[in-house]
């Protein structure tokens, strides 16, 4: 299983179908930073045959642009709408990755998505297991999608 390809395919498909924009992937990052500044992160836990986490980390200005596309309205501040939109985006990405990982869609459960934002925060995740962080670029800027999994 190529987790990077799963993330890349799922992200491109969701951005095309839900936001009518192209998300261009870059090569996966070699190292992970767990510190984020002026950003919004959507997180979804995974449990079952695998356990882990899928997250999308989006700078504030890009998060507001994505939310504007999602809700068909101008968004000018980080608020609950933005956190909900980024959390839902993480949920859709996790759902796509789940269906790619499990042919029947069973054996893997998704937690309720959550989102955090702030001037500065950290996101810790599994250190042992397979993981990938894929940078993407849309017209409005760049963001990261990461997924860490280990067999249960």
From TrEMBL:
Q: Domain Chemotaxis phosphatase CheX-like: where?
A: 40-136
Cell membrane: present as a keyword of the record?
no
Q: Name one GO biological process term.
A: chemotaxis
**Alphabetized UniProt keyword annotations:** Chemotaxis
Q: Does the keyword Protease apply?
A: no
**Listed InterPro entries:** CheC-like_sf (IPR028976), CheX-like (IPR038756), CheX-like_dom (IPR028051)
Under SUPFAM superfamilies, the record lists: CheC-like
Please give the name of this protein: Chemotaxis protein CheX
Q: Which organism is it from?
A: Syntrophotalea acetylenica (Pelobacter acetylenicus)
């Amino acid at each position: 299983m190529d987790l990077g390809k799963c993330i890349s395919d799922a992200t491109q498909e969701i951005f095309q179908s839900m936001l009518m924009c192209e998300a261009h992937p870059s090569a996966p990052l070699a190292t992970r930073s767990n510190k984020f500044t002026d950003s919004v992160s959507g997180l979804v836990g995974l449990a079952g045959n695998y356990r882990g986490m899928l997250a999308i980390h989006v700078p504030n200005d890009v998060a507001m642009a994505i939310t504007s596309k999602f809700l068909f309205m101008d968004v000018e501040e980080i608020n609950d709408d933005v956190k909900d939109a980024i959390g839902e985006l993480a949920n859709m990405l996790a759902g796509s990755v789940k269906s790619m990982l499990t042919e029947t869609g069973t054996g893997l459960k998704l937690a309720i998505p959550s989102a955090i934002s702030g001037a500065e925060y950290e996101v810790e995740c599994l250190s042992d297991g397979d993981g990938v962080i894929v940078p993407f670029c849309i017209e409005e800027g760049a963001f990261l999608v990461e997924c860490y999994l280990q067999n249960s």
